[in-house]
Amino acid sequence: MMRVHVNHNPVEILPGMTVRHALIAAGLIKEVEDSKKVYDEWGNEVGLDGALSEGMKIYVR
Amino acid sequence: MLKGIVMKKRMIAISYIFLFILSVAFGYGEAFQIRILHVNDFQGFAEPYKPVGSNEMVGGIANLAAEVEELRKERPSLLLSAGDMIQGNNWANLFQGESVIELMNEMRFDAMVVGNHEFDFGPEVLKKRISEANFPVLGANVEGLKVVKPYIIKELKGVQIAVIGVVTEDTPLSTHPKNIAGLKFASPMDTVQRYIAEVEDRADIIIVLSHLGHAVDRVLAERVKGIDLIVGGHSHTKIESPVEIGRTIIVQAWEYGKALGVVDLTIKDKRLIGLRGYLKEVKPEKGKEDQKVLKIVENYNQKMEAVLNEQVGEVDVDLDGERGSVRRRETNLGNLIADILRHTAKADVAIINGGGIRASIRKGKIKVKEIYTALPFDNYIVAIKLTGNQIREALEHGVSAVEEGEGRFPQVSGLSFKYSLPDKKGSRVKEVLVAGQAIDLDKEYIVATNDFLAVGGDGYKVFGEAIKTSRDFLVVGGMMKGEKIVYSDSGRWLRDVVVEYMRGMKRITLMVEGRILEIR
Question: Which domains does chain B show, CATH number per domain?
Fold first, then answer.
C-alpha cells in the first residue's frame, strides 16, 4: 500500500500506481477531465500517468 | 644582442600561437556552450493528440524531431531519453516497441535509460529492442541484464561527459513478475554513488539519466554529491525552469513528446560555469515535420491498420456490449471479459464494471480493432483478496444504480447472484454463490478486477478498503506476495490480454448463463 495526498487528503493506492489512480481514489478525476490540472508540491504540472511515491502530495486546481 | 631579442620575441609569439591553437583545439580559456536535449516518457505517442481536459492538439514526434535538428545546428549536442519510450500507446504496443526504436535511431539518440515500462514485453523482447538500437541503453542498477550498460562517456568539444543511467527500484511492482524474473534492481542512490567514484577522474561533467521520478531525483541530488545534472523521467513532470539542489540541477520534459527539454551548459576550462534550461513545447505544425521521422510514423500507421484488421477468432453469436445492456444485466461479452480476467489472474472470482465495456462485437470473424473499440480504456488487471462479506458489499454497490444505468453495474465470473430491484439500495443482493456453493462471508477469496475499480472507481470503495489494510507487497521468486494484493500487471492493457486470449480460443460460443438474476 502506498499513501499519497491529494489536495491535503490522504488516499491509499498500490505501489506502481499513478496520478490518475490517486485522483480516482480521491474522487477528483472528473475535475481533471473537465480541464483542471494536477501539480506536485513544488508547483510543477504532472501528467495523469506520472508515477507517485510514498508520501507525495499532489494538488488539483 | 638584437638577434637575441628578436629570437625571444619570436619564441613568445610562437608560444602564444601554440597556446591559442591549444585553447581552440581543447577548449581552454574561452567559455563555450554545449547542449543537452532530452525527452522522457514518450510511450509511443508518435502522433499529435488531445490530452484529457483539453481541445488542443499537442505533441507529434515528427515536429519534435525537427526541433532537435534545428537546435543541434546551434551547438554541439547530446540527445538523451530518460526512459519509458517503447510501451504505452498502440503505436508502440502493437509492435512491441520496434517502431519507437526505429524512430529513435533516425533521430540519432545518444543514449537512453531503461524505464520500468521497457520491461513490459518481457526480457527477450527487451534484449531484441536493445540489439536494434544504434545507441547505448543504460541501467546501472539493473543486475542480471548484460545488454544494458551502467554508463557512457561522450565527448563534446573536448569535454568528457559521463552519463549514468538508473531506473526506479519499484520496477518489479509495476510489471508482471515474469518480465523481470532473474533481475535485481539495486538502490539508485548507492549505484550512482559507486559509479561517480568510477568515472569522476575521467569525466568533466556528470549527468544522471534518471527514471526515478522527480521526488526521488531531489533526494538523489541532496544525498549524492558530484552530480552536475539529473535528466529525469517517470513522474511525467513538466519542469519549466531547472531545479537547483545544492550543486545539482534537475530537469524533466513532461511526457508523450509534448515538450523537448533543452539545457545549455556553459563550459570554461572543462568546468561547468553556467547553465540555462527550458522546455520547448511541441505542437503539430504541418510542413515543419522532420520528413524522415514522419515517414516512419506513417509507415507504422499503415502497419498498425493491418494489425488492427487482423482476425483473432470467430464468434457464433453477437457479443453484447451495448450501453443499455452491460449497465443493466449480465451479457455474454461481460461474461467473456470477466472470465478472461479471472483466468489470467488465477482468481476465484472476477468483478468488472459494465461501464468499462463500450461496444458490441458482431458475430463472425473478430478483428483486433473490434476488441479495442469494446475496451478502449487503458485498464489493467489487478487481483485482491476480499472476504465473502466484502464481495457481497461490492455486488450490493454494483446493483445500487441499475435504474440510472450507471457504469458500476457488475459483470462477473466465478460467481452468481440474485438481486431484487424493488428493494432499497444496499439490501438488494439475495443470494451469492461462488463456484456453485453459498459464499462464505468470512472466507477470503481472490477477486480479479481492473485497476480502475481497485482504487475505488465507480464508487467501489470495498477494493480501496482492502488495499488500505494491506501492508507492502513484494515480488519473491517471480510471484507477487502480499497480504491482499496477489496480481497487478500495469504493463499489459486488458484489451491486449483479451486479444491474446481470443487468439488461443479461435472459435467462441457464448451465452448468458444466469450469473446475474433479477428477482421480481
Answer: 28-305 (3.60.21.10), 311-519 (3.90.780.10)
How close does chain A come to B78, measured CA to CA in Å? Answer: 25
Instruction: Write b or e for each residue in B362-374: b if 16 or more Cβ atoms lie within 10 A of its Cβ, otherwise e.
Output: eeeebbbbbbbbb
Q: Do A51 and B236 touch (CB under 8 A)?
A: yes
pLDDT digit string (tens) for chain B, length 520 residues? 445 555 555 554 555 455 445 454 554 579 999 999 999 999 999 999 999 889 999 999 999 999 999 999 999 999 999 999 999 999 999 999 999 999 999 999 999 999 999 999 999 999 999 999 999 999 999 999 999 999 999 999 999 999 999 999 999 888 888 899 999 999 999 999 999 999 999 999 999 999 999 999 999 999 999 999 999 999 999 999 999 999 999 999 999 999 999 999 999 999 999 999 999 999 999 999 999 999 999 999 999 999 999 999 999 999 999 999 999 999 999 999 999 999 999 999 999 999 999 999 999 999 999 999 999 999 999 999 999 999 999 999 999 999 999 999 999 999 999 999 999 999 999 999 999 999 999 999 999 999 999 999 999 999 888 877 766 555 544 445 567 888 988 889 999 999 999 998 867 778 899 999 999 8
Pairwise CB contact (< 8 Å): A40 & B237: yes
DSSP A1-59: -EEEEETTEEEEE-TT-BHHHHHHHHT-HHHHHTT--EEETTS-EE-TT-B--TT-EEE
Class of domain A2-60: alpha beta
For residue A28, the chain B residue with the least C-alpha distance is B457
Q: Does A60 touch chain B (CB under 8 A)?
A: no
Grid coordinates belonging to B296? 516512419
Residue ranges of domains in chain A: 2-60
